[in-house]
Amino acid sequence: MQRFTKYIFLLTLSILIAPFAGINLLAAQTNISTSDRAISSELNSIEETKVQSLAENSLAQVTSVSQLSDVQPTDWAFQALQSLVERYGVIAGYPDGTFRGNRAMTRYEFAAGLNAALDRINELIATGSADTVSKDDLATIQRLQQEFAPELATLRGRVDTLEATTAELEANQFSTTTKLEGEVIFALISLIEGDNAAGEPVDTNPTASYRVRLNLQTSFTGEDQLTTRLQMGNVVPLGGTNSGETLTNEGRIEFDGDTGGDAQLGLLRYRFPVGDRTNIYLAAAGNGFVDLDASYQLTPFLDGNAVSLFGLRNPIYNYSAGTGIGIRHFFNDQIELNLGYLVPTNNASNPFPQNGLFDGTYAGLAQIIFNLSDNSRFGLSYINSYSPTGGDDPDVEPNTELTPFGTSTGSNLSNSSFGRPVSVNAYGFSGTFRLSPGLAISGWVGHANHRYIGRGDGSMWTWAASLNFPDLGKEGSVGGIIVGMEPRLTELDSNLGSPDRDTSLHLEAFYKYALTDNIQVTPAIIWLTAPDHNADNDDIIIGAIRTVFRF
């Protein structure tokens, strides 16, 4: 049997409505029963629900058949459609200006369309502008109303069920799933010219390298998050304490690290809420204070955009380690408190002396952040750390044992334990102020007192200021200029030797261009004056092009 299309339906409507062009008000009122009016009222209610649920797919009432682009005068139902549109106003089209008359109709669509016709009939009855109407016509309308009453009742039930289901989904719109987030970096990096920390010319061989991260984001309640990161890469550091081409941590690339081609567990962290204003972080492996949400919000235009490790954030956050706990609490919308305690991952699982959670290297953070407005925020930070890795031998000479300690940026002296356990009290100020949609300034100041147990004290300073240009050239792109001083040991007790004698400046320019939402290319140049805070060394210039793919 031929399907019931919209064209057949409109022809039916035109036949039904035509007799009512001249309705006698009294006759109509005496022949339409109370039950008919109840059904018509139900049709009205269903039509309103249908219109609301399909609002995004419907047009306003069309007033001329010419508004429907797919209806032509040669169509067999053209006159019926023209009459329904222009005389009775009971036809609507789709947002693209089409009627789609050959599309099959459901009985529910027929019921809703019939309701529009009945509305027009009621309007004609109310005007009392006609003479007579036959009982046969009224009987036909009544039979249609009765026949479609079950569909109307079913449709009403389905709408009620849909509303209940939607409310349930909104209240419990989470299912336990794991979402994969990937990031791949391709990088071209080269030392262009300059001297290393020993005063020797650097090797200018360009390199091509990569880093791959796969983050598995899992939630069990819809409000918590378990992050498991697998990572591998072959980005050989340009420098480091007594290693690399530059022989200093100044100018380090933020994504450096060589896993030898092996996939490693880069991060394991679980965050869950306690109340409406507090989040707890359980840091199992690979975490720094930045991974406890303690710094990103303070320099959002630098973190993830700058190419150097120094350019991301205040270096004092790098006194942290990998395993522990963090707390982020919001007193209100303007003030929040961050607390953290971390120890090296390998130490945390080691039960021997100078290891474990409380008998070895650790770093503790207390920070308060002020969100003054959507465009400005700043934070005051305090970090206390201890590293026993320098050993306890008082006969070890200064500068002969540069152990893994410090901010991972800046001079060799600022990262040296001088062969002693080191206790640190560090203080920082960091903030961002957005002056306009296309301009923001960010910066920080960091200071740390180093106590080399049994040997003496030292003082470290660092600072930076940056101009940031959000959406420069294209939405999602960011440009930046950074000027600062990487960590410098400005004071040192005489029995330990001399502090850094000169001041090296870090100058960096980068432009992250968003090719798409998932691909960004960032060319950057880094210029270090007086490398390792030694004016005898020629300036170092580093060039890099970082391409990031996210999925």
Question: How would you briefly describe this protein structure?
Answer:
This is Porin. This protein is α+β, with helices and mostly antiparallel strands and 551 residues long.
Note down, in words, how this protein is organized.
It contains eight helices and 19 strands. It is of the alpha+beta class and 551 residues long. Strand 7 and strand 8 form a beta hairpin. Helix 3 packs across helix 5. It is elongated. The chain starts with 5 loop residues before the first helix and ends with a strand. The relative contact order is 0.09. About 8% of the residues have low confidence. This is Porin. Belongs to the OprB family.
Helical residue percent band: 10-25%
Mean of pLDDT: 81
Low-confidence stretches: 21-40, 45-60, 396-403
The general outline is: elongated
Distance separating the two termini: 50 Å
N to C succession of SSEs: HHHHHHHEEEEEEEEEEHEEEEEEEEE
Strand order of the largest sheet: 1-2-3-7-8-9-10-11-12-13-14-15-16-17-18-19
**Strand content range:** 35-45%
SS-based structural class? alpha+beta
- Largest beta-sheet characterization: 16 strands, antiparallel, barrel
Q: List how many beta strands DSSP finds.
A: 19
Radius of gyration based on Cα positions: 36 Å
Number of helices: 8
